[in-house]
């Protein structure tokens, strides 16, 4: 009788195993690029019958990709994890948290929002081991810990979140064959980039496509430009001071950075459609200028996500490629990289949520997404060969090779600035207002909300 | 006399013209949306929909087959093909460098820097030949100025209709909107009768309160209402969203129905009272059948509103697979950053189908019902 029972249990376990294996994108143990040990280790955690809800900003393709990662957690632990996400996440999570029906884990793109939730006591702090782990295993670990440490409701600072999935912003996209036809070389310093810009104009071409349009968020691509220019004209410490407003927004250093962006965007000949078109061109349509014939422009500066807006059939790495948005050779500020990322926070504490956060520390959670598309990680313990295509690997190298990594400053500033007057101010600037006035106006708003 | 007749006809003309202009103003963007829904994303970003109907002159680039496919013919390595891939179109000029995409007229032989000879014919047929074996991994780019006939695609409709979970989302929306239309009508009909025909103290005050509620924006109630649902244990569920839609719809429903009912002839109701009918009988046998136009018109309004709603559904229902409504599903289709305009245009026409059926089925009532309360 007992052996019968055991046989039955074994059969069920086998069947369950088979059913789970079908859902997994890469068969466990098959591909040597993956750290299957970390997957096997996870099997010791038993979470059968427990469920976890995750809400986040990813919809469409990203949602499917993240679900393929979740499948491994479910297969190993037996927990039931449901990811539901998409557009309008910021409003949704605020309503849910306020009304008392938060998801288990929230995936937050803006650290500022997480800091706000932590202050109101809506987030569960992560155990101390996590910050030690981050310091040891993430490239530029300290900056990731700092970005996710906030004051709680009682004012004590603690780590509340963990970054998973990172975007690199300091990239310039171009069409290699256009460069080849025209005989241009990839610039390795800002001086060379400016010289190339002037040369393209002299040759009768248009160097840049810049589009700031993004519906209600119009202006944000310009904030990335300014942030990159801040990092190339000033030390990382000065950048941090600017983000926290210890350095005034209308400080001469900031004005210089804004004007450095203006050097590219406010000269009619430098931009497709003239500088007047910068504010009105949609950022999603802007990169298409690279691929027209004759080319509307030769270069486009945008984050690592932009290939999804290239014309259909474009092969990244062949039809289009990117180079690092270079630093000034004579300023000795290293190779700064600007980026952004999504932060996982626990909005409703439970054992399964804690285990999921631990799962995100295992290499396999990163490698499964890396091997597909659109995923970068600062995790030093993962196998870089797992990157699904050479382009991703190249971006990953930029990330790992950064002397300085700084998070998108506008996401760290208060919402009224970083998602408000900074955007509109930059649109004003590109349409002709001078940098000193624009930055002084932004500082005035910042003073008023303090 | 003649002058008056003249002005009158001129006035009629003016009115008709105004009506025509208004109709055009309303339908023109919709027509544009319809045209856009048959174009792919690259077409939409390249030119406006009004250009979609005409043959387009465009600068195209075509990548020839790779060097490894070259055939050896009479001592020459040759790659042949058609830049329209056999489709219709006409080439007027071509080039081999992005610097001069239209430098040569069709039919001429062009020698590239690598020593390859390229020629393109008006039909789009091209021939690349070389005396030495061709090198490299990718095919040559050929640029051409071409005229291609108008092109439309059904692919967008295929994508929207065939999207995963769209059928489920359709059922979810139906599950939300049908009860969310029926419940408020039931409640509001009773309330409207009481406010119109039953004498009790404070009646006018209640009517004023209901009218006042029309002004309150529903966004104000989202968080407190969801909090209440969580506390009494409804949480995020269909019951929750029915209650929410009922609450948000009631003020307008009561106001509309009361105004209609109060316009019904007093004599009928009083004679029924004299004959010994109770209030409930009067409501059921006399008022309800007579108010059918008003009920129908409100039903259309409420159905359209719940059908199109995204905000209330996301807040009170959640966005997991088995609860996501159609609007939410379509929003996800537009991609993480919302750049797929063609999906937006197409989904507009897909979602419009059911409300159109409802509207035409009840249209005659709507016209009568719209007069509700306005003429006494």
Automatic annotation (TrEMBL), chain A:
Signal peptide positions (record): 1-21
InterPro entries: Bact_solute-bd_prot1, SBP
Alphabetic keyword roster: Signal, Transport
Lineage: superkingdom: Bacteria
A Pfam cross-reference name: SBP_bac_1
Keyword Iron: no
A cellular-component GO term for this protein: periplasmic space
Cell compartment(s), UniProt: Periplasm
Main location: periplasm
Family: Belongs to the bacterial solute-binding protein 1 family.
Alphabetical list of PANTHER family matching this protein: ARABINOSE-BINDING PROTEIN-RELATED, OSMOPROTECTIVE COMPOUNDS-BINDING PROTEIN GGTB
Protein name: Maltose-binding protein /trehalose-binding protein /sucrose-binding protein
Source species of the chain: Pseudorhodobacter antarcticus
From TrEMBL, chain B:
Protein name as it appears in the record: Maltose ABC transporter membrane protein /trehalose ABC transporter membrane protein /sucrose ABC transporter membrane protein
Record's bilayer topology term: Multi-pass membrane protein
Membrane-spanning intervals of the chain: 12-35, 176-198, 204-226, 238-257, 341-362
Keywords from the named record: Cell membrane, Membrane, Transmembrane, Transmembrane helix, Transport
GO biological process terms held by the UniProt record: transmembrane transport
Protein localization: Cell membrane
Any one GO CC term of the record: plasma membrane
Alphabetized PROSITE patterns for the sequence: ABC_TM1
Principal subcellular localisation of the protein: membrane
Cross-referenced InterPro entries: MetI-like, MetI-like_sf
Residue stretches making up the ABC transmembrane type-1 domain: 170-362
Gene3D superfamilies in the cross-refs: MetI-like
Family to which the UniProt record says this protein belongs: Belongs to the binding-protein-dependent transport system permease family.
């Amino acid at each position: 009788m007992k052996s019968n029972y055991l046989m039955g249990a074994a059969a069920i376990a086998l069947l369950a195993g088979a059913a789970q294996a079908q859902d997994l994108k890469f068969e466990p143990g098959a591909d040597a690029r993956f750290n299957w040990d970390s997957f096997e280790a996870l099997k010791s955690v038993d979470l059968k019958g427990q469920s976890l809800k995750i809400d986040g900003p990813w919809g469409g393709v990203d949602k499917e990709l993240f679900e393929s990662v979740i499948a491994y957690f479910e297969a190993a632990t037996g927990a039931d994890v449901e990811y539901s996400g998409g557009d309008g996440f910021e409003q949704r999570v605020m309503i849910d948290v306020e009304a008392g029906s938060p998801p288990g884990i929230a995936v937050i793109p803006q650290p500022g929002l997480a800091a706000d939730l932590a202050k109101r006591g809506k987030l569960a702090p992560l155990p101390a081991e996590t910050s030690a782990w981050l310091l040891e295993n993430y490239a530029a670990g300290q900056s990731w810990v700092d970005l996710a440490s906030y004051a709680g409701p009682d004012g004590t600072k603690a780590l509340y979140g963990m970054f998973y999935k990172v975007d690199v912003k300091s990239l310039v996209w171009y069409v290699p064959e256009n460069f080849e036809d025209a005989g241009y070389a990839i610039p390795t310093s800002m001086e060379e980039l400016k010289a190339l810009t002037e040369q393209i104009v002299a040759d009768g071409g248009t160097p840049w496509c810049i589009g700031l349009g993004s519906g209600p968020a119009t202006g944000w691509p310009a904030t990335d430009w300014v942030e990159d220019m801040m990092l190339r004209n000033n030390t990382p410490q000065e950048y941090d001071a600017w983000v926290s407003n210890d350095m005034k927004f209308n400080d001469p250093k900031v004005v210089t950075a804004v004007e450095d962006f203006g050097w590219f965007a406010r000269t009619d000949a430098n931009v497709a459609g003239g500088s007047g078109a910068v504010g009105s061109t949609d950022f999603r349509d802007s990169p298409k200028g690279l691929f027209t014939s004759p080319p509307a422009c030769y270069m486009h500066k945008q984050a690592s996500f932009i290939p999804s807006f290239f014309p259909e059939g474009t092969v990244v790495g062949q039809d289009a490629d990117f180079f690092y948005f270079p630093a000034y050779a004579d300023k000795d500020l290293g190779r700064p990289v600007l980026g952004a990322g999504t932060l996982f926070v626990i909005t409703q504490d439970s054992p399964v949520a804690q285990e999921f956060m631990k799962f995100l520390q295992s290499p396999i959670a990163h490698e499964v997404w890396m091997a597909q598309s659109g995923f970068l990680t600062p995790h030093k313990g993962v196998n870089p060969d797992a990157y699904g295509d050479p382009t991703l690997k190249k971006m990953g190298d930029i990330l790992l090779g950064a002397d300085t990594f700084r998070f998108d400053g506008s996401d760290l500033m208060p919402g009224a600035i970083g998602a408000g007057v900074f955007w509109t101010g930059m649109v004003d600037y590109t349409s002709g207002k001078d940098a000193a006035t624009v930055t002084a106006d932004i500082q005035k708003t910042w003073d008023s909300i303090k | 006399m003649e002058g008056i007749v003249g002005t009158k006809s001129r006035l009629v003309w003016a009115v008709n013209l105004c009506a025509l202009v208004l109709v055009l103003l309303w339908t023109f963007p919709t027509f544009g949306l319809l045209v856009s829904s048959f174009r792919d994303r690259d077409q939409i970003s390249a030119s406006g929909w009004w250009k979609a109907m005409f043959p387009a002159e465009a600068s195209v680039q075509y990548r020839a087959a790779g060097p490894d496919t070259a055939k050896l013919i009479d001592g020459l390595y040759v790659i042949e093909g058609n830049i329209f891939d056999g489709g219709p179109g006409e080439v007027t000029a071509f080039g081999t460098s992005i610097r001069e995409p239209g430098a040569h007229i069709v039919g001429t032989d062009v020698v590239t820097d690598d020593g390859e000879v390229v020629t393109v014919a008006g039909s789009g047929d091209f021939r690349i030949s070389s005396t030495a074996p061709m090198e490299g991994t990718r095919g040559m780019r050929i640029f051409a100025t071409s005229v291609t006939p108008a092109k439309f695609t059904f692919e967008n409709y295929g994508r929207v209709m065939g999207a995963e979970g769209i059928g489920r989302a359709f059922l979810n929306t139906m599950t939300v909107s049908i009860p969310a239309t029926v419940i408020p009508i039931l409640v509001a009909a009773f309330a409207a009768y009481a406010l119109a025909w039953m004498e009790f103290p404070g009646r006018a005050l209640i009517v004023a309160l209901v009218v006042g509620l029309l002004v309150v924006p529903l966004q104000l109630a989202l968080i407190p209402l969801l909090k209440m649902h969580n506390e009494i244990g409804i949480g995020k569920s269909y019951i929750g969203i029915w209650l929410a839609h009922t609450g948000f719809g009631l003020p307008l429903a009561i106001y509309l129905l009361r105004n209609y009912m109060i316009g019904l002839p007093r004599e009928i109701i009083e004679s029924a009272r004299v004959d010994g009918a109770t209030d409930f009988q009067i409501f059921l046998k006399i008022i309800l059948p007579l108010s059918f136009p008003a009920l129908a018109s409100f039903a259309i309004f409420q159905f359209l509103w719940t059908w199109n709603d995204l905000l209330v559904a996301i807040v009170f229902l959640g966005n997991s697979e088995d609860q996501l409504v159609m609007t939410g599903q379509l929003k996800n289709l537009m991609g993480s950053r919302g750049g797929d305009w063609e999906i937006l245009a197409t989904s507009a026409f897909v979602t419009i189908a059911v409300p159109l059926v409802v509207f035409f089925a009840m249209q005659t009532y709507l016209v009568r019902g719209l007069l509700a309360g306005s003429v006494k």
